[in-house]
Design brief:
Blueprint: H1 2-21, E1 24-31, E2 37-44, H2 47-56, E3 60-66, H3 81-96, H4 101-110, H5 115-129, H6 134-138, H7 147-159, H8 162-219, H9 225-261, H10 263-275, H11 279-300, H12 305-312, H13 319-333, H14 338-344, H15 350-362, H16 365-420
Antiparallel strand pairs: 1-2, 1-3
């Protein structure tokens, strides 16, 4: 019984401690030393601690209350990679200007519009004030600050060049987000346009064709085979639209879940995507650009090559390249050169392997990797622009064929009636 009581007491104490450590938002109104009225928001553990913090800033608090949560999105939107890049740039600029890290965190956090981002930065600042290193504090948020980010920050802290490393990380993340946006544009633009085309076709079949069907029945003539097929499709969609919608949504959700839960299926999808004409080439170039830039950034920051390779695979955006990077890491860890290990994967073009070889021999591997990244990022930009130009007439042709076929099918009986009159 004593043991049970002790466990309950421990749980109660832990819950109380967690509640005390939780950062809460407050709204306050007060005056400064000149008597000027001020108001604002502040995050803290309690009203007393917030009042004390504001008093240290020369503000006499007249009223303070917990900030009410909005009905929707109370926790704030998800922290994005773009926000992490902006935060890294701001922190690097302030530290380069000589502002202490804790104060820099407080300034950056106060300027955040996303409550979740703001609370995260304040929590990291509190951890640093408690004696933890920046790397250890960031490790509490492994989703927002991945292994690669923490490795780079750790290397910067160890070498005493944290501001320079953070600036490099910000540039790296900005470039990575730019290339991701290009890939999304290449993949989603044709998909969205085609989806709209088939949506228009469904609207014609469900709402427009039945009107013509009434005219066809009143005429009493036999319908052409093509028009009859469209009428049957229209009747099926009207009667079983819910089934068609369920099959489409279920198929999409099922494929996504299967991809997330089955590594073999995800690998298959990734390999098929890499073999699609034009789009596959863009995905190859994008993966190589990410591989080269990520490895170049980590290697220049002083992270050992084997350790750097362990964090590079996930940044390529491709399961095939991630697995190839893991094989490269294993080969390098037993003494093979990087260029030889990359050649064995049969994924990296000869130009890339040769430039890596020259970089290894000359001791300028990071410089060569950056040159590779810049070249392939430009190739991705050009390929996406070319793809958009090439796809536009192809997409318009598909829209014309789908919608035009339905329109022709609807008017065929009218042409037939006119010919018999």
């Amino acid at each position: 019984m004593a043991t049970v009581a002790a466990i309950k007491a421990g749980k109660t104490t832990g819950a109380a401690r967690a509640q005390v450590n939780q950062m809460l938002p407050f709204q306050w109104v007060g005056t400064d030393k000149r008597g000027v009225k001020l108001k604002g928001d502040h995050v803290g553990k309690s009203i007393t601690m917030v009042k004390a913090e504001l008093r240290r800033q020369g503000i006499n608090v007249t009223s303070i209350k917990p900030k009410s949560k909005p009905l929707f999105g109370a926790a704030g939107k998800t922290v994005t990679a773009r926000e992490i890049a902006v935060f890294s740039r701001q922190l690097a600029t302030m530290m380069a200007a000589g502002i202490p890290m804790v104060q820099a965190f407080e300034i950056v956090a106060s300027g955040q519009d996303n409550p979740r981002m703001k609370n995260m930065l304040i929590d990291v600042k509190t951890s640093i004030e408690g004696g933890s290193s920046l790397t250890e504090s960031l490790a509490k948020y492994p989703v927002q600050f991945d292994e690669l980010y923490r490795n780079l920050v750790g290397a910067g802290e160890a070498a005493g060049v944290l501001d320079s490393v953070l600036d490099t990380v910000a540039t790296y993340k900005e470039n990575l987000e730019t290339i991701k946006a290009k890939i999304k544009k290449a993949l989603f633009y044709p998909a969205i346009v085609l989806a709209v085309a088939f949506l228009v076709a469904a609207v014609l079949l469900i709402f427009v064709l039945p009107t013509f069907q009434t005219v066809f029945k009143a005429a009493g003539s036999d319908l052409p085979a093509f028009t009859l097929m469209l009428v049957n499709c229209s009747d099926f969609l009207i009667a079983y639209w819910w089934l068609v919608l369920a099959v489409v949504i279920g198929s999409i959700v099922g494929l996504v879940m299967l991809k997330n839960r089955s590594p073999a299926f995800a690998h298959l999808i990734d390999r098929v995507m890499l073999k699609i004409p034009v789009i596959g080439k863009i995905l190859h170039q994008s993966a190589i650009a990410r591989f080269a830039r990520t490895l170049g950034v980590t290697f220049r920051a002083g992270v050992p090559l084997v350790e750097a390779l362990s964090a590079v695979g996930g940044a390529t955006g491709s399961i095939v390249y991630a697995q190839a990077t893991e094989r490269v890491r294993e080969d390098v860890s037993v003494g093979h050169s990087l260029q030889l290990s990359m050649r064995q994967t049969n994924l990296f073009p000869n130009m890339v392997v040769q430039m890596v070889s020259i970089g290894e021999e000359s001791g300028a591997l990071d410089t060569m990797l950056f040159k590779i990244a810049e070249f392939y990022e430009q190739e991705v930009n050009n390929a996406v622009d070319t793809l958009s130009t090439l796809l536009e007439p192809f997409i318009m042709m598909i829209i014309g064929v789908v919608v035009g076929s339905i329109v022709v099918g609807m008017y065929l009986p009218i042409f037939k009636l006119a010919a018999t009159m």
